[in-house]
Amino acid sequence: ESIEKGGFEHFMLKEIYEQPRSILDNMRGRMVAEKDHLMMGGIREFENKFVNADRIIIVACGTSWHAGLVAEYLIEDLARIPVEVEYASEFRYRNPIVNERDIVIAISQSGETADTLAALELAKSKGATIFGICNVVGSSIARATDAGAYTHAGPEIGVASTKAFTAQVTVLTLIAMIIGSKRGTLENSKLRQLMVEMENIPAKVEECLKLDAQIQQIAAVFKDVTNFLYLGRGYNFPVALEGALKLKEISYIHAEGYPAAEMKHGPIALIDAQMPVVVIATKDSSYEKVVSNIQEVRARKGQVIAIVTQGDQVIPSMADYVIEIPETSEQLVPLLSVIPLQLLSYHIAVLRGCNVDQPRNLAKSVTVE
Ligand code: G6P
Fold first, then answer.
1. CA 246 / ligand 1 centre spacing (Å)
2. Is 364 one of the annotated active-site residues of the chain?
3. How far is residue 94 CA from its own chain's centroid?
4. Helices (H), 223-324
5. How much distance in Å is there from the Cα of 363 to the middle of ligand 1?
6. Is the interface score ipTM higher than 0.95?
7. What percent of the chain has pLDDT over 70?
8. Is residue 323 within 8 Å of residue 305, measured between CB atoms?
9. Ligand 1 — pocket residues by CB below 6 A?
């Protein structure tokens, strides 16, 4: 087993460190910016269906559902097709309205999650086209779909999903770009810029991994707290949910992810000097608003751990801890901002003596409902 871990203490850490590679593997053959090449085998056959779809419904569970939420922002932003993201377990039991002009995307690392499989079978029976995004080749969900794309992240052993998430987001980003360009909703100049930025992502993820030692120190400060709040807006809202889920899963600390603006409708009541608040505050269209959210937390003595864009001049004077990540296009930020959150949960769990790779009560793939 220690050989399989490749010198890392846990599979989870190894998998976190594999992300520059797994993201690159997902782009390989699908996108070459300088050649203007952007293509995904799985979509080609269904390109017209995607281009003409009335709506895209995404079904998934857990971390894969968070990747689906990122895709909602991406596809609506770049391809202007309405997207609904559903928990597979809710979708399948609520007599959903689905028809032949809908595309249902099922996202699943294992390809075996019972609820996701049942949700796609239901959508299929109502005539929708089913597209799968799976990591495990030949898995049940991969086999049950009309077409799909693999995430090529390699085997993920740690129960808490890390590299599968960024691989899913990478594939979904490419899909949004492909559909957007075919539909003419994504201008060529913007498409080119995104392609170039995408190619820079693996190196930027590598830079994020260099934050490891700093994040370990922050983890040591907060390892004994009982609650955590994670805030983000726009593309970083799903990342806040994912950061909170990672912490809950492996450290057993209660954590909640929230859209930063919704904080005032509830979670703000919880904020006091004992409450660490992770705020994802990268330079994007909601930056100013997030800065005000940080001030609201500060005013109630909450401890702010801010994830910011390198060179930010404003937030360091407000936040207790600042983690700087490289700049990128707003649409691609989740691929970077999630990395420090994965590392934070990992280090907190290790410092608390938790079984990081096999947390209590959780399974890598849930094949029962
Ligand atoms: C389980 C795992 C999670 C995973 C979820 C969905 O709960 O512990 O890490 O996100 O299932 O799994 P899937 O294989 O469908 O992505």
1. 12
2. yes
3. 26
4. 236-251, 287-299
5. 8
6. yes
7. 100
8. yes
9. 61-64, 108-110, 113, 116, 159-161, 362, 364-366
What local confidence, expressed as pLDDT, does residue 35 receive? 86
Helix-then-strand count for the chain, H and E = 14, 12
Q: Which amino acid is at 335?
A: L
Say what the pLDDT of residue 139 is: 97
Question: How many angstroms separate the alpha carbon of residue 276 from the centre of ligand 1?
Answer: 26
**Cα dist from 181 to 23, 73, 77, whole Å:** 21, 16, 12
Half-sphere exposure of 329 (CA within 13 A, CB side): 18
228: left (phi over 0), alpha (psi -120 to 50) or beta: beta
Q: Is the pLDDT of residue 116 over 80?
A: yes
Reply yes or no on whether the pLDDT at 3 is more than 90: no
CA angle 245, 251, 252 (to 5 degrees): 75
Beta-carbon contacts of residue 310 (< 8 Å; ≥ 6 apart): 324, 325, 326, 327
Q: Which two tokens stand for residue 195?
A: 């392609």
Q: What is the pLDDT of residues 290-347, one digit of tens each?
A: 999 999 999 999 999 999 999 999 999 999 999 999 999 999 999 999 999 999 999 9
Catalytic residue among 124, 182, 190, 364: 364
Q: Can you give the pTM of this predicted structure?
A: 0.97
pLDDT at position 46 is 86
What's the start-to-end Cα distance of the chain, in Å?
31
Of 139, 338, 366, which is best to mutate to test ligand 1, by the most ligand atoms within 8 angstroms of its C-beta? 366
